[in-house]
Amino acid sequence: MQASIDNAKRQFDIDIADEIKRIKNDMDIDENGYPEFWKLIKRNFKGYINKDLHCPMNYLCNIRFENYYASERALPTEHFFNKFDLDINRKTCLRVEELIVNYSLSVNTYNSGINDNESYLLLRSDFDNLLISLRSINISKNYLGLMSWLIDRAFVLTPQMKSNSNKIESKLKKNRSLLLKVLYDINKQNFLKCFDKKYQ
Predict the structure, then answer these.
(1) In terms of CB atoms within 10 Å, which end of the chain has fewer, N or C?
(2) Which of 9, 158, 149 is nearest to 76 (CA)?
(3) 111, exposed or middle or buried, with CB in 10 Å at 0-12, 13-18, 19+?
(4) From its phi and psi, is residue 48 left (phi > 0), alpha (psi between -120 and 50) or beta?
(5) Half-sphere exposure of 161 (CA within 13 A, CB side)
(6) Where are the domains of the chain?
(7) Cα dist. 163→73, 131, 157, 167, 178 in Å?
(8) pLDDT tens digits, residue range 114-170?
(9) 12 half-sphere exposure, CB direction, 13 A CA radius
(10) Global pTM?
(11) Among the residues of 78-175, which ranges form H helices?
């Protein structure tokens, strides 16, 4: 577990299975036993637990937290959202949505295939081309109406969008994080205006 935690903090990969074998050999588990946290990660563990072994994970496994219940309800997402008037026609908006959705589908294709450097470069190139395509479409310079419309369609935030949610045929909600990334990269300043400034 510690090897996995350390690996997540590094820029390079290690083979977790090999690292665990190496650590086990160094620890001489047959003679010294297992650290106390082991009984938490291995269900029905029957081996020898040595409580005298010093290990950072033992400290964590012995911490007991009191149950915490928030005194206030969480604010709904729409509380942070600024809706702007749509200043371009819906046909253009749907074209922008289609470009983002099609890129999302290509992301899924790459992710389901072999994850190698070539695939990453192709995906990065596709993303750059997507931004170029979006910037070439004749849309308002400030993008605010378009951005808030797309965010509203993806997250269904405003009462109007909620009342029509059953009729909306949009695949944006399947990859909301990509939508936010694209909008941010197109125009960071105006993207942030779609959200209440006091929460930024």
Answers:
(1) C
(2) 158
(3) exposed
(4) beta
(5) 15
(6) 2-61, 77-199
(7) 23, 31, 10, 9, 25
(8) 455 555 566 677 778 888 888 777 666 668 888 999 999 889 888 888 888 777 777
(9) 1
(10) 0.57
(11) 90-112, 117-136, 144-155, 159-163
